[in-house]
Design goal:
With 197 residues, the protein is mainly alpha-helical. 74% of the residues lie in helices and 0% in strands. The chain folds into 2 domains: 52 residues, Arc Repressor Mutant, subunit A; 132 residues, Tetracycline Repressor, domain 2 (Orthogonal Bundle), CATH 1.10.357.10.
Length: 197
């Protein structure tokens, strides 16, 4: 019976990744077990190890896939603000990937595919910073990048942990984030500048 079910899967690797993403989305990455995934995918308990070797290999594959999707999403955004919106929408649309991507203790840190995908995502984020006028960067691209990353990542993390249910209240999280950045970064009028000095 098991061999028949295995044969009909076609893409066992994808089936195991999909099952893993379902488990992570509902119970978090710590609940992941290759044996349980094999049962969910309807294959022998050794089948997932054939593709991923171990649990860390599976989580590395999930992080790599996540960073690849993330880099594509960010690169399609026209400016830094929209990259922030894309960041939040990515987290909301791919919560399991997002949970794994930013927990380096779960990955094989030296995996070439993971390193390449992370580098692409980092470059997509940095490109948004370099588009800012010099005054908006405060003369320090690296710190400006950390500030932008902190805002988007913090919002995404609060969103996924259920801490923004009231403020978001069924609205598109990307639109809420866009509004938030508009509140924080609206241009100062001369009167506002004088009052603050």
């Amino acid at each position: 019976m098991t061999s028949e079910r295995t044969y009909h899967h076609g893409d066992l690797r994808r089936a195991v990744l999909t099952a893993a993403l379902d488990v992570i989305a509902s119970d978090g990455p710590d609940a992941l077990s290759l044996r349980d995934l094999a049962r969910r995918a309807g294959v022998s308990h050794a089948a997932p190890a054939h593709h991923f070797k171990d649990r860390t290999g599976l989580l590395t594959a999930i992080a790599t896939e996540g960073y690849t999707l993330f880099a594509d999403t960010l690169a399609a955004a026209p400016d830094l603000r929209e990259r922030g919106v894309a960041y939040v929408r990515f987290a909301a649309g791919h919560p399991a990937h997002f949970q794994v991507m930013f927990r380096p203790e779960l990955h094989h840190a030296d995996d070439p595919g993971l390193l390449t995908a992370k580098a692409r995502a980092t470059e997509a984020l940095r490109a948004g910073i370099s588009d800012l006028p010099e005054a908006g960067r405060g003369g320090d691209d690296r710190l400006a990048g950390i500030a932008a990353w902190s805002l988007a990542h913090g919002f995404a993390t609060l969103l996924l942990s259920g801490n923004l249910e009231g403020p978001v209240d069924g609205r598109d999280p990307g639109e809420v984030f866009r509004t938030l950045t508009g509140l924080l970064f609206r241009p100062q009028t001369p009167a506002t500048t004088q009052e603050s000095s």
